[in-house]
Every structure is written in C-alpha cells, then in structure tokens.
Amino acid sequence: MLKYCVLEKRAFFASLIWGMSGTYVSAEGESSLIEKASSVTLDSIINKSDGKKEAYPWNESTYPDITYGDTLFVYLSWAFEDSTIISPNEVFTYKLPDQITFNDVAQSPVFHGNTRVGYYTITDNVISIWYDDKNFCKRDNRKGALTFSGIILKDENGGQATEDVIITFPDQIQVKFHMLTPTITSEMKINKLIWRVNPPDGLT
User: Fold this and answer.
1) Averaged pLDDT, 150-164
2) Handedness of CA 135, 40, 115, 122 (dihedral sign)
3) What was the pLDDT predicted at 178?
4) Residue 186's CB: how many other CB atoms inside 10 A?
5) How far apart are CA 122 and CA 37, in angstroms?
6) Which residue, 49, 94, 93, 46, is CA-closest to 69?
7) Are 75 and 147 in contact (CB under 8 A)?
8) What are the pLDDT digits (tens) for 78-102?
9) Which residues pair with 44 in a beta bridge?
10) Each residue of 4-53: pLDDT tens digit?
11) Displacement of CA 73 from its chain's centroid (Å)
C-alpha cells in the first residue's frame, strides 16, 4: 500500500544566529527557500548502508529496497535568479520530510566554489541557510548545495512494516522506496569444555 506524505511549509523562527566569531548577529529576515530560490533540486539519495547504492533518482519499475535504519545521504542544490534580492544574514528555511529523521547539524559553512559565503544548520528536520558575504549576495549566478544524512526509523504507525512508501520533499519532489524490516541474526556460540580424566592405576 502506498503512503503519501504532503508536507506543510511551516515557518522556522530564528531571530538570532550564533556567529563563528562567538557573537550574536541579528537576522535580516526569513524566507522559504522554495519561495525565494528559482529552483530547489533533490539531486540524489545514496544508501550508504547498501554499498553506497543510489536510491534516487531511480528509473526501474520497482522501488529501491531500503531497510529501516539504513543511512541515507541526501544531496540538495538550489539557485537564485540574478534579479532576486538577497539581504546579508537573511535566513532561508527548507522543511525536510518527517518520515526521515535527519541528523542535526550545528552551524557549518556554505561554500560557493572554494569561498565560504554563509552558514547553515539543520535542527528538527529544518534546514536554515544564511549568507553573510555581501559580495555573494549582490553577484549573479548564485548557487548552493548541501549534503546531509538521515534514517527512516519507523513507518507511520510506529512499526517497521514491509511496504511501499512515497516521501514528498518540497516542492512536490517524490521519492519512492520499498521499505524492508531489518533482519535480526542471532548467533549462539557454544564453548566446548574437554575434560581429561586420568584412568585409574593399572588401566590403560
């Protein structure tokens, strides 16, 4: 049975951002990355637990097998129109689907090529991105990309049922998986104790 997840675009409020210098800087505002960017692309999902097998995009008729607890690496990219105004320290948020539990990420750099142009965090499945490089904010051809990880722990009923699922990323990017219940292998090790008994005198 297919399960559909339609995500709400919930706001993530952050009036203050902790700077790398150890001081607080005020955010200039907050916007949805989906609404502000010209494109947001889910480039790939890699199942690292399955030998780095690509789980998205997927061109076969059946869904890729994903076991509950597998580590999934997500590659996400975005771009802005040259005419779009970006204010320094304006926060862009992107709500990740709740079916995947993504690892929280403390403040980390965002790069354009080899140049650090801003920072991002991931908290409670919300990505927050802001640019503090004024030259980047004013230039053309502004693009960004992130790689992050998460796992699917449970189905929507709190179990680990074997079933097909459809997970929707904003903006309506659908990812289809065939979820598998983990196989538990029990090993019993038997230690064999060999006793040497000396025969009574006179017996051989």
Assistant:
1) 95
2) positive
3) 96
4) 4
5) 18
6) 49
7) yes
8) 999 999 999 999 999 999 999 999 9
9) 75
10) 333 333 333 333 333 333 333 444 578 999 999 999 999 999 999 999 99
11) 6
Residue showing tokens 């051809």: 141
Closest CA to 92 of 17, 27, 33: 33
Please, which residues have CB within 8 angstroms of residue 196's CB and are 6 or more apart in sequence? Answer: none
State CA 158 to chain mean position distance: 20
Q: Which two tokens stand for residue 54?
A: 């690509």
**Cβ contacts of residue 144 below 8 Å, gap of 6+?**
77, 78, 79, 110, 112, 129
- Integer Cα distance of 94 and 102 in angstroms: 13
Percentage of the chain with pLDDT > 70? 76
- CA-CA-CA-CA torsion for 54, 57, 59, 63, nearest 10 degrees? 70
Compute, in degrees rounded to 10, the torsion defined by CA atoms 100, 168, 5, 170: 100
Look up residue 175 and give its two tokens: 């990812």
CA 92, chain centre distance (Å): 17
- The answer to whether residues 53 and 46 touch, using CB atoms and an 8 Å cutoff, is yes
Lookup result for tokens 């689907």: 97
Q: Say which residues have a Cβ less than 8 Å from residue 110's Cβ, sequence separation at least 6.
A: 116, 117, 118, 119, 120, 129, 131, 144, 146
